[in-house]
Write a structure and sequence with these properties.
20% of the residues lie in helices and 28% in strands. It is α+β, with helices and mostly antiparallel strands and 206 residues long. It is globular, with a radius of gyration of 16 Å.
Length: 206
C-alpha cells in the first residue's frame, strides 16, 4: 500500500473552502501540503476521528469490490467503471499530472476519487476530477472535501484549472460550496480555478 498523504483528523463539517484563504489558521499533518491561497482549498483538521488519505499508484482492483457493491445499491456506476477501466488499461490515472486517491480506514475503502488530464478542447490546461465517490455511511464527515483538496494539490504543478461532470443535484451543491462554478459545456458541468502562480505549466506545455 502507498504511504498516506497525511494523517487527517476530521469532525463533521469542520472544513472550510473559500476564495481567499490566506492567513486562515490551520494545522499541518505529516507529509500533507494542502496550503493554498486565493480561490484554492484549505482543509482544517480538528482532533477527533483518525482517517487516512492515500495516493494509489498500483491499484489492486479487488480493493474496490466493497465500494462497488455499495455504490451500485445507490444506483451509481462510477466505481465499477473505475475498476473496469483500470483492469482494461483504459484509465489507470498514470499520465503526467494524474493520480488516484482513496480514503482508507482499518483496511476498508470508504471513498475514492482521481485526477485525469481533461481532453475537452475548451479546457486544454485543465485536470478533470473523475470517479469521486464517498460511501453513504461516511458522508458529512469532510471526506469528500479532503479528497478534492488532495486532488487539487496534486495537480497544482500540472494544471491551471479543474473540471468535473456532476450528475446528481446534491453533488452539484457539494462542488459549488467548494468554489467550483457551473459552466455550459459538453461533458463538463463545473470548473474550478485556484489561481496558481504564472510559472505553473501543464504537461502539454513543457
Amino acid at each position: 500500500m502507498q504511504r498516506p498523504v497525511g494523517v487527517v483528523r476530521v469532525t463533521s463539517n469542520r472544513y472550510i473552502a473559500g476564495r481567499r484563504l490566506s492567513g486562515l489558521p490551520h494545522r499541518r499533518s505529516t507529509e500533507s501540503d494542502y496550503d493554498l491561497s486565493h480561490r484554492a482549498l484549505s482543509i482544517l483538521r480538528p482532533p477527533e476521528e483518525l482517517a487516512m488519505l492515500y495516493p494509489i499508484v498500483d491499484l489492486d482492483p479487488r480493493d474496490l469490490d466493497e465500494l462497488i457493491a455499495i455504490s451500485q445499491r445507490e444506483g451509481f456506476a462510477m466505481v465499477s467503471r473505475l475498476q473496469a477501466d483500470y483492469v482494461s488499461g483504459l484509465n489507470r490515472f498514470d499520465q503526467p499530472g494524474e493520480r488516484l486517491f482513496a480514503w482508507i480506514e482499518s483496511g476498508r475503502w470508504l471513498a475514492v476519487g482521481g485526477l485525469n488530464i481533461e481532453v475537452h478542447p475548451q479546457f486544454a490546461d485543465a485536470g478533470r476530477i473523475r470517479r469521486l465517490y464517498v460511501g453513504p455511511d461516511h458522508r458529512r464527515r469532510g471526506i469528500g472535501r479532503a479528497l478534492v483538496g488532495a486532488i487539487v494539490m496534486h495537480g497544482r504543478g500540472a494544471f491551471r484549472q479543474f473540471t468535473c461532470r456532476v450528475g446528481p443535484i446534491q453533488a452539484r451543491g457539494f462542488y459549488e460550496r467548494l468554489g467550483f462554478l457551473p459552466v455550459a459545456a459538453e461533458r463538463v458541468t463545473h470548473v474550478f480555478e485556484p489561481g496558481w502562480p504564472d510559472d505553473v505549466r501543464t504537461p502539454r506545455e513543457t
